[in-house]
Design goal:
This protein is 26% helix and 16% strand. The chain has a single domain, classed as 3-Layer(aba) Sandwich (Rossmann fold). β8, α1 and β9 form a beta-alpha-beta unit. α1 crosses α7 and α4 packs parallel to α5. The chain is globular and about 55 Å long.
Length: 424
């Protein structure tokens, strides 16, 4: 059974059931429910491909339905057992459905989308860079995937793009070979950071990505016939940014160092604020920013043992905490600037605490591992969070995009990506 839900024009609300705690869970993403396997296809927690002791389910929660006009009484129901922590409730009879039983109305996409950041958002730019692996042990910065993505399918740039109404993610800037794509481009580069020196300049740094966008803007101005028309288009466009993790990790900063003090961390945040201001000056008005996640909790390259480095996670939390006031200050000073911060740190913390409630069985191991003579892969990547020691699976990217687009609200600040998209 599939239910199609459109925007309700009467006073009845269709509410997404959300957990009141930071551990609100999803069993499937609303962004493309047809692409998911059924939950029964995943190995159970504690199986060879699961994590012993992880994945304990929590009881189904109650959800409510309200009449915003106050003409009918509200009602309460319970999420289905298959999706106990997130479901959709339809009024007035309070029937509940899992997300993979519902097709939400597709949003109208903005005129264009522009993406900046690191490997979580790179859709192929690094495939056009020289392959470099140094004696210090830097991992190659070119994806093994034919699409150029560090994923078994879609990455976060793709899943956010489809969430906001696009059929697909904007193309990698480097793939355009000097050409122009009027509905957007992706400038993200794996291994890159806010600083030019991060990763020994082996990637396309954020400052260089901004130079590429400036070139794109000049092409748009020539095509549209003036600065005013470009600004009008860009003011309605969606700008997605996600970077900073590489700057905070000593593995990527052997030569130039990484923030070891509050002063150095503030300098990094200042550089990020200046980059965002530069985008604003060029016409950007709607900015969706993904903060730094659990960079200290990953399978380690080459030995694939899962560890959590407390100091790296402390770097990430300090960076994320400093990002909020920077964005609040910019939005108060720059007329028309709207933003949403996707709390990747908070969301991954919630997922790792209760993976089974997200349809995952393994949040510690990498699905793909390097072995002789070639890579080996797990048989059920949709049950894994990590595709490789650094990046997410297709499934994890869909879950993350759904959390940022639809909520629950504790994973975005000050508004969801959906609310940002709908701002006039």
């Amino acid at each position: 059974m599939t239910v199609r839900v459109s925007v309700l024009r009467v006073g009845i609300l269709c509410l997404l059931a959300m957990s009141a705690s930071a551990s609100a869970q999803y069993r499937s993403s609303p962004s493309s429910p047809d692409s998911y396997p059924s939950p029964g296809s995943y190995p159970s927690p504690g199986s060879p491909d699961g994590n012993e002791g992880e994945g304990e389910a929590v009881p189904p929660r109650n959800v409510t339905c309200k009449d915003t006009d106050g003409k009918r009484p509200g009602c309460t129901s319970t999420c289905p057992d298959r999706c106990p922590q997130q479901c959709i409730v339809l009024c007035p009879d309070c029937k509940t459905f899992c997300h993979d039983e519902v097709k939400p109305a597709k949003p109208v996409p903005p005129p264009a989308m522009f993406v900046f950041g690191d490997g979580a958002l790179d859709v192929g730019n690094n495939a056009y860079l020289p392959k470099v692996e140094t004696e210090e042990g830097y991992p190659p910065q070119v994806s093994q995937s034919s699409s150029g993505r560090f994923s078994n399918g879609a990455n976060l740039a793709d899943t956010v793009a489809t969430s906001i109404g696009f059929q697909q993610s904007p193309p990698a800037y480097m793939s355009l070979n000097g050409g122009l794509n009027m509905w957007g481009a992706n400038y993200a580069s794996a291994g890159s950071g806010i600083k030019i020196s991060t990763n020994g300049e082996r990637s396309i740094s954020l400052p260089k990505q901004l130079e590429h966008f400036k070139a794109t803007r000049s092409q748009m101005e020539a095509k549209l016939g003036g600065d005013a028309k470009v600004r009008e288009l860009l003011s309605k466009s969606f700008f997605l940014l996600g970077t900073g993790g590489q700057d905070l990790d000593p593995r990527w900063n052997v030569e130039s160092g990484y923030p070891r003090s509050q002063t150095e961390l503030q300098e990094l945040i200042t550089l990020y604020g200046e980059a965002i201001s530069s985008l604003y000056d060029m016409g950007a008005r709607k900015m969706a920013i993904v903060n730094v996640g659990l960079i200290g909790c990953k399978p380690q390259p080459y030995n694939y043992n899962y560890v959590c480095d407390k100091s790296l996670n402390e770097n990430a939390t300090a960076f994320d905490a400093a990002l909020k006031p920077v964005m609040a200050s910019l939005s108060s000073k720059k007329q028309g600037l709207s933003y949403s911060i996707g709390d990747f740190y908070g969301f991954t913390t919630a997922v790792f605490a209760h993976p089974a409630n997200y349809g995952l069985v393994n949040t510690k191991d990498s699905c793909s591992q390097w072995g002789y003579p070639d890579w080996t892969y797990c048989y059920n990547p949709d049950g894994y969070w990590f595709w490789d020691p650094e990046f997410m699976t297709d499934r994890a990217a869909k879950l993350t995009a759904a959390a940022f687009y639809y909520g629950p609200p504790q994973f975005t600040f000050p508004v969801t990506f959906k609310a940002l998209l709908e701002k006039k």
